Amino acid sequence: MTPRLSPWQLGATLYMPAVRDDIADVILHNKIPGLRSLVICLEDAIGEDDLPQALHNLQQVLNSLNAARHAAGSAHWPLVFIRPRHSEMGAWLVENCDLAAVDGLVLPKFTRDSLPVWWQILEHSHLSLMPTLETEEVFDVLQMRELAETLQQHPVRSRILALRIGGNDLMNILALRRSRHYTLYDSPMGYTIQMLIAVFGSRDFALTAPVCEHIDDRQIMDSELALDIAHGLVGKTAIHPSQIAIIEQALMVSASDHEDALRILNSSQAVFKSQGAMCEPATHRRWAAAILARAQVYGIAPEAGQPLRRFSAGYLPEI
Questions:
Q1: pTM of the full predicted structure?
Q2: Strands 37-41 and 79-83: what pairing?
Q3: Do residues 154 and 115 touch, judged by C-beta distance below 8 A?
Q4: Gap between the Cα atoms of 224 and 222, Å rounded
Q5: What is the mean pLDDT of the chain?
Q6: Phi-psi region of 30 (alpha: psi -120 to 50; beta: other; left: phi over 0)
Q7: What φ, ψ does residue 278 adopt, rounded to 5°?
Q8: C-alpha span between 184 and 171 (Å, rounded)
Q9: What tens digit of pLDDT does each residue of 11-45 get?
Q10: Contact 265, 287 (CB under 8 A)
Q11: Sequence-ordered strand ranges (E) for 114-196
């Protein structure tokens, strides 16, 4: 069974401003069907004047979650994260709030220089971390390689659930906004995402895809999701509940990929042909394992006229 705190369990991660008064209801009562993870945002989604109300509201949400957790546990909840405004707010949250019902923090504007500050704040907590890559340094492959190597050797490594790519902040650095007619990959972010995957993915870090802010354009969303998955990203930020089902559907595994993955992991042949393509277990094994892990969470995409296929952990072969 895929553990609760797995990058594959993130799915469509919905960002919700902390001023909203229905956050506890969303978490506890399945108000948004299919929601796997959400981030209570105290950063960009909150104006400075609204910050006191946001913090007060967060305290009320935490009170509700902790009461429910003591009564029934939290296994059926979506994953819950908080995105503080900065490290000072992160320290305040850890010192002044009961975060027992929270799975982790999203760390804004994360850099190599900010790592020691965040680790001092969070080392003795239970919280998992999702650092967000969204500063000017992200465009520099050498600085990203240094960051990846530092994280790989640091005790924080075991606490990092995934790295989030902050698309809008990165585009803002370039004085750009994504086009209404093209995917994010048709902008300078295409190179940036590919570089981050090469640097961090090669070191076994999971990365999540930036939000698609054009909520009503299904064609762009579908095209971008196909590229997200082709690049190995494990989930996608969502800003509207209508995006959740679309992202979930895209994360399903095709029947052909699932069949290839099973054969790769179970074959004794060094090379074989499957569905018109070469399969080489020595070089395709990690891909195959990721396909089966994704299928376990999201299922296998049905062919025309066929029902959705989902399965238990027992369906997976030994790897």
A1: 0.90
A2: parallel
A3: yes
A4: 5
A5: 91
A6: left
A7: -75, 135
A8: 10
A9: 999 999 999 999 999 999 989 989 999 999 999 88
A10: no
A11: 128-133, 163-165
